[in-house]
């Protein structure tokens, strides 16, 4: 969208490190009309200070929009912190069963009304009745699923953090997380996504680890009932792997609705196979 479509309409984008409010202040141009956020993001979970960004944007007459998919509307309420528009990928936690796709956009009556009367009706993105029914089904169990997933994630995260093959974990509600205090301030929960770095010398070791998992599947999505894993090195070749680059040894784990001990046993046998 930012690189391929919007430039054809004369729209430019400036990318910044959103962890510091000063970077937003420096990036604002006379023609800036929108600040687009994702907090946390879905790999290293870096946060933006939503209240601070909302206050800055409002003082400059700029609209703010956030991808709030990581937390869901239950675990983070951006609009209450001053953000104008909150987007959720309903494909993930809201659907909850990996069997439908959808999205939700929330904002003021005036703003949503304007979007509905213009752009929305021209993009063909209306949800089909059956998909809407599946999403309503998911909403009915969303609170209890998030509670179970969160409990499992905390237990798996603690186990990974203590494992000798793991260098470090990244999880917003772990005290080692660089923005832990901010996460506790603006998030009510952290759900099921975490990342970790393994001690690996070769890409093949990470490949063997992932392929040795008997229950946890390799896939890029998350938010459903099943646990998934995705290694960062899946996007490049063996010859491109550099063990000195920490991100090359990074894996993202999503914990689903399975029992925590069941997932830990699967991870342990995969570690033993790979190393």
Beta-strand level of the residues, as a percent range?
5-15%
Strand order of the largest sheet: 5-6-9-8-7
CATH topology grouping of the largest domain? Aspartate Aminotransferase, domain 1
| Structural class assignment | alpha/beta
The coarse silhouette is globular
Residue ranges: pLDDT <50 for 5 or more in a row? Answer: none
Any idea what the radius of gyration is? Answer: 20 Å
**Named CATH architecture of the largest domain:** Alpha-Beta Complex
Q: What is the makeup of the main sheet?
A: 5 strands, mixed
CATH class identity of the largest domain = Alpha Beta
What does this structure look like?
The chain is α/β, with parallel strands linked by helices and 275 residues long. The chain is built from 8 helices and 9 strands. It has 2 domains: 6-130, Type I PLP-dependent aspartate aminotransferase-like (Major domain) (Aspartate Aminotransferase, domain 2), CATH 3.40.640.10; 142-274, Alpha-Beta Complex (Aspartate Aminotransferase, domain 1). It has helices at residues 21-27, 50-59, 72-75, 109-117, 129-162, 180-186, 203-212, 260-274, and strands at residues 34-38, 63-67, 85-89, 103-106, 166-170, 193-198, 217-218, 228-231, 250-254. It has a 5-stranded mixed beta sheet, covered by helices on one side. Strands 1-2-3-4 form a 4-stranded mixed beta sheet, covered by helices on one side. Strand 1, helix 2 (50-59) and strand 2 (63-67) form a beta-alpha-beta unit. Helix 5 packs across helix 8 (260-274) and helix 7 packs across helix 8. It starts with 20 loop residues before the first helix and ends with a helix. The mean pLDDT is 95.
